[in-house]
Amino acid sequence: MDLRLTPAEQDFRSRLEDWLTQVEVPAGLRDYGSTPTREDLDAGRAWQRRLVEGGWAALSWPSPFGAGATPSEQALFAEALARRGLPRQLSFVSMELAGPIIIAYGSASQREAFLEPIRRGEQIWCQLFSEPGAGSDLASLSTRARAAGDGWLVSGQKVWTSGAHYADYGLLLARTEPLADRHRGITCFAVPMGTAGVTVRPVKQMDGESKFNEVFLDDVAVGPGDVLGELGRGWEVALSVLGRERRMLGSLAIGLGAALTEVRREAERRRLDDAVFRARWASLWGRVQLLRWTWFRFLSDRGDSAADPRMSVLKLTSSELQQEVARLAADILGLDFVYGDAGARWRRVFLAGHGATIAGGTSEIQRNILGERVLRLPR
Ligand SMILES: Cc1cc2nc3c(=O)[nH]c(=O)nc-3n(C[C@H](O)[C@H](O)[C@H](O)COP(=O)(O)OP(=O)(O)OC[C@H]3O[C@@H](n4cnc5c(N)ncnc54)[C@H](O)[C@@H]3O)c2cc1C
Question: Based on the structure, what is the number of domains in the chain?
Answer without folding.
Answer: 3
